[in-house]
Write a sequence for this structure.
């Protein structure tokens, strides 16, 4: 690692660029139940400056932790959303439902949407807590009882649950890939059945779902496994190639009607 960092530092200097050493950190990825051996990674240096070891770091607004379970990022979203819900609670009796719906989409929903395709890949304890916070916000906006069932409330407000937002983003990714709007890099990971075997079957034009032994791989490899699986299950009327905007609207309507 030190050799590679020295090579990188030399390349920066030769190209008259500077590297901010103070913002250089190291993140040791390991299984959640495995203890971190700090002595194995404490000697990483760049230009004779020690690189700090961290458990979490922020990259493009998403917090990555050492076990890659996204709990730190989900907990951060939960804290930010809870503050906004406090504002809704103060004005719930002064503003009607249709007025409160607008700040929900501008102050709360963006937290649920940004990077959802990455961090909402499996049903963890942290994700379930975040969903409970979302249901709390919906009850406050509709001025409902705190134990009221939220299925009809989500449908009434045309609001997607976190799990449904994840399906929407995965479906939009597959739509772009299917219509050649994504980088060719993803061709390595996603294939059609016709590219895998020569049998003339009725599913030859469907995307190939890679075999996996554990449910962990199924939930974590979203674009690799869950993407083709979701796309193959969609109705042909939803997948009609008009534009990404029209596809997103059709997909959202199907999710609200619980058709996906």
């Amino acid at each position: 690692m030190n050799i590679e960092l020295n090579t990188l530092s030399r390349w920066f200097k030769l190209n008259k660029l500077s590297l901010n050493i103070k913002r250089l950190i190291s993140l040791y990825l390991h299984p959640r139940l495995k203890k971190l051996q700090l002595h194995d990674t404490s000697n990483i240096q760049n230009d004779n400056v020690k690189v700090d070891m961290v458990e979490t770091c922020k990259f493009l607004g998403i917090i990555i932790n050492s076990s890659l379970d996204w709990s730190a990022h989900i907990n951060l979203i939960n804290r930010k959303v809870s503050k906004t819900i406090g504002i809704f609670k103060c004005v719930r009796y002064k503003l009607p439902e249709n007025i409160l719906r607008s700040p929900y989409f501008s102050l709360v929903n963006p937290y649920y949407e940004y990077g959802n395709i990455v961090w909402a890949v499996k049903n963890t304890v942290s994700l379930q807590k975040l969903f409970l916070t979302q249901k709390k916000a919906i009850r406050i906006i509709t001025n409902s009882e705190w134990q009221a069932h939220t299925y009809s409330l989500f449908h009434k407000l045309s609001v997607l649950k976190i799990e449904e937002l994840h399906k929407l983003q995965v479906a939009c990714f597959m739509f772009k890939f299917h219509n050649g709007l994504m980088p060719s890099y993803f061709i390595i990971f996603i294939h059609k059945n016709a590219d895998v075997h020569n049998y003339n079957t009725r599913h030859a034009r469907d995307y190939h779902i890679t075999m996996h032994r554990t449910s962990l791989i199924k939930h974590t490899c979203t674009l690799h496994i869950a993407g083709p699986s979701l796309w193959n299950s969609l109705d042909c009327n939803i997948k009609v190639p008009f534009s990404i905007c029209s596809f997103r609207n059709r997909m959202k309507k199907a999710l609200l009607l619980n058709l996906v």
